[in-house]
C-alpha cells in the first residue's frame, strides 16, 4: 500500500465515522506530497494529524456558525482565527443570521513547517456550500470555490488553526 | 462582480461588487433598480447588513471590511435575493510581525543553532500573502551582526543563524522597513575546553587544590555551578570530591598523603595530574 493511500485511509475512517454520525457526506480530500515541505521534515504522525485536525476545524466552524455558539470553536481554533470567528458569530446573532458551511472538497498542500515545529502552513483549494438563514427564512445557498491559507499550531493534544483566511490566490 | 435581475416591467436591479477589494481601502458598490433593499455581506471573517435605496452607490470605508477572506453578498430586494461573491485581500502594507525565535538559550559557536520565523500581518491582523523582504539580524555581545534578507512566501519568512563565539545576550530582530520585532537570545559558554589544577600545603595534614579559571574553547568562562571532580589516589585507595565552580574556579582540600596522585576532570575533559611529594 502506498504511503499516500495509507495516509488517506488513516484520515478517512475516523472522519467518515463522524460525518455518518452527523448525517453528512464526507468531503473529498486530496493531500499533496509532504516529502519536500521544509524547512522541517513533516513526520508521518504529523502528516496524519494536521490534515485530520484541519478537516475537523471545518466541522467546528460549521457547528459554531450554524448554531451561533462560539464555544464550539474552542476545540479547533486559537488566537486570531478564533477571535475573528467569534466576532462573526456575535455579528450573526445580532442580525438573526445562521450560516451552514458544508465542505464538499479540499485540495490541501502543506507549504511550510517551521524549523522548531511550532507552526505549519497549508493552502487549501476548498469547495463548499454556504446556506444562509435569517430568523428561519432562507436567504439562499451559495456554492463557493476559494483558496484558504491556514496556519496551525500544536497544542497539548492536537493541532489548532491560528490563521484561517479565504480568498487567497 | 455584477449581477442583475430582470422583472417584467420592473427596472433592472443590479449590484456591482468588485471581484477583489483590499483591506484598508475604501470602495463603492453601484446598484441599480428602485426601492429599498438590504445588502447582507456574509463570511467567516464577518457578517454585516446595510440598508440602501436601489439606484444609489453604496460606499464602504477603509475600516468597514477589515478581515481578509471570501464573502457572499446577498441583496434582499423584498421580492427576491440577488447573490454575488467577492474576496477581501489583506493589505499589501505590512504593519506587524509575529516573530518566533528559538531557542531562547544556547551554547556559543553553534552553526545554524538559532532559528527565526516571521509571519507578516497587515494593520488588521490579516496575513499578507504578497511577497515581502524580511530582514533578519542577529547582533551579539561584541556588536557583530549577522544579517539575512529573506522574501516571504504566503506571508511567512524564516532564517537560521549561527550563535556567536562570545557568550552573552544577542538581539535577534526581524524587520520590514520600520516594522520590527526583537527577541533576546542568551548565548552561554560551551563545554570546558581544558582544566588545570594546582596544589599547595594547607593547615594540618591537608592539601589545598584549586583549578585555574575554567573556560570553553572560545575563552568564555564556564558558568558557576559546573561540577569539577577532584580525585586523589594513594596506597590503593581513592578519594573523590565533586565541587561546583564558584567565580570561575573550583577549590577544595584533600588529605595530604605522601606519593598521592591528584587529578581533576570536568565533563569529558581531563586535566593535569599532580604527584604530591614526588613532584608534578
Q: Would you give an account of this structure?
A:
The complex is a heterodimer of chains A (169) and B (280). Chain A is of the alpha+beta class and 169 residues long. Chain A has one domain: Nuclear Transport Factor 2, Chain: A. Helices cover 36% and strands 38% of the residues of chain A. In chain A, strands 1-2-3-4-5 form a five-stranded mixed sheet. The radius of gyration of chain A is 16 Å and the shape is globular. In chain B, the strands form seven sheets. A five-stranded mixed sheet of chain B has the order 3-9-8-5-6, with no helix packed on it. Chain B has a five-stranded mixed sheet with strand order 11-17-16-13-14, with no helix packed on it. A four-stranded antiparallel sheet of chain B has the order 1-2-4-7, with no helix packed on it. Chain B is rod-shaped and about 115 Å long. Chain B has three domains: 88 residues, Immunoglobulin-like (Sandwich); 93 residues, Macroglobulin (MG2) domain (Immunoglobulin-like, Sandwich); 84 residues, Sandwich (Immunoglobulin-like), CATH 2.60.40.1930. The chains are: A alpha+beta (169), B mainly beta (280).
Short description:
Chain A is of the alpha+beta class and 169 residues long. Chain A has helices at 3-22, 44-67, 79-95; strands at residues 28-31, 97-113, 120-134, 137-154, 159-168.
Question: Secondary structure elements and their pairing?
Answer:
The complex is a heterodimer of chains A (169) and B (280).
Chain A: H1 3-22, E1 28-31, H2 44-67, H3 79-95, E2 97-113, E3 120-134, E4 137-154, E5 159-168
Parallel strand pairs in A: 1-2
Antiparallel strand pairs in A: 2-3, 3-4, 4-5
Chain B: E1 2-5, E2 13-16, E3 20-22, E4 27-32, E5 36-43, E6 46-53, E7 57-60, E8 69-76, E9 81-89, E10 96-102, E11 105-107, E12 114-121, E13 133-139, E14 145-151, E15 156-161, E16 168-176, E17 179-188, E18 192-194, E19 197-201, E20 206-211, E21 215-216, E22 227-234, E23 237-244, E24 251-255, E25 261-266, E26 269-275
Parallel strand pairs in B: 3-9, 11-17
Antiparallel strand pairs in B: 1-2, 2-4, 4-7, 5-6, 5-8, 8-9, 10-12, 12-15, 13-14, 13-16, 16-17, 18-21, 19-20, 20-24, 22-23, 22-25, 25-26
